């Protein structure tokens, strides 16, 4: 129902037609998305080879301290038990890129929405950025000092986590309280439910300024 409603609104606003009239177009776009996704999974990542070539040119065994460098280093590990395959490196790079892009987009979207709703915090964040950077271009060292902005981002992650759930597979039989979890069972852990559970965080779970986490940050803001 939700998909039909959103598709109907999109179709009428963007194309001036009913969703039912353009149903075939939406279905073809969906199929096209799957085709593009499958093609992307077969693409090799050229930066992996470049990372190896740079390390060989320098005559060093290390490939850098970034995520890709650590993966390539693990690929060349002398220990057979710790070494990973080239396909594993490629798969991890693709997963990291796609997941990172999607989660970051979700985080930014909700953060902008919250700032639009709570204009007082939007103004506080703006003042902090201007005070810290002035007319300078923001840089990583300064961004790490943005306390109010960090609070806003963490609050957005708390209220609307990009990953609504986490899936873990049980490797062996485990006792969890009164439950017995058999092997190969997929556990779905709801991130949103945990973040909004009053049994864990108390009745003030939805009041940001009452949570202990924010009390500590607010105290830090007033003393520095």
UniProtKB/TrEMBL annotation:
It comes from the Eukaryota. SUPFAM superfamilies: Cytochrome P450. InterPro entries: Cyt_P450, Cyt_P450_sf, Cytochrome_P450_Monooxygen. GO terms for cellular component: membrane. One of its GO terms (molecular function) is oxidoreductase activity, acting on paired donors, with incorporation or reduction of molecular oxygen. Gene3D superfamilies: Cytochrome P450. Keywords: Heme, Iron, Membrane, Metal-binding, Monooxygenase, Oxidoreductase, Transmembrane, Transmembrane helix. It is found in: Membrane. It is a single-pass membrane protein. Belongs to the cytochrome P450 family. PANTHER family: CYTOCHROME P450 CYP749A22-LIKE, CYTOCHROME P450 FAMILY MEMBER. This is Cytochrome P450 superfamily protein. It comes from Prunus dulcis.
């Amino acid at each position: 129902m939700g998909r039909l409603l959103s598709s109907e609104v999109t179709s009428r606003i963007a194309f001036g037609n009913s969703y039912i009239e353009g149903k075939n177009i939406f279905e073809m776009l969906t199929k096209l998305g799957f085709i593009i996704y499958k093609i992307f999974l077969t693409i090799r990542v050229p930066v992996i080879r470049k990372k190896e070539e740079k390390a060989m040119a320098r005559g060093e065994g290390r490939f850098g301290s970034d995520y890709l460098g650590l993966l390539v280093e693990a690929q060349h590990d002398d220990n057979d038990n710790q070494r990973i395959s080239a396909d594993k490196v490629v798969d991890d790079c693709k997963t990291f890129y796609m997941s990172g892009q999607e989660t970051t987009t979700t985080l930014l979207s909700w953060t902008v929405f919250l700032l639009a709703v709570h204009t007082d915090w939007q103004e506080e964040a703006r003042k902090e950025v201007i005070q810290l950077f002035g007319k300078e271009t923001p840089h990583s060292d300064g961004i790490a000092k943005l306390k109010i902005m960090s609070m806003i981002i963490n609050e957005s992650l708390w209220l609307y986590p990009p990953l609504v759930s986490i899936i873990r597979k049980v490797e062996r039989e485990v006792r969890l309280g009164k439950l017995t979890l058999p092997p190969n069972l997929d556990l779905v852990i709801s991130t949103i439910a945990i973040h909004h559970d009053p049994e864990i965080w108390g009745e003030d779970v939805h009041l940001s300024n009452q949570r202990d986490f924010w009390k500590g940050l607010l105290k830090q803001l007033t003393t520095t």
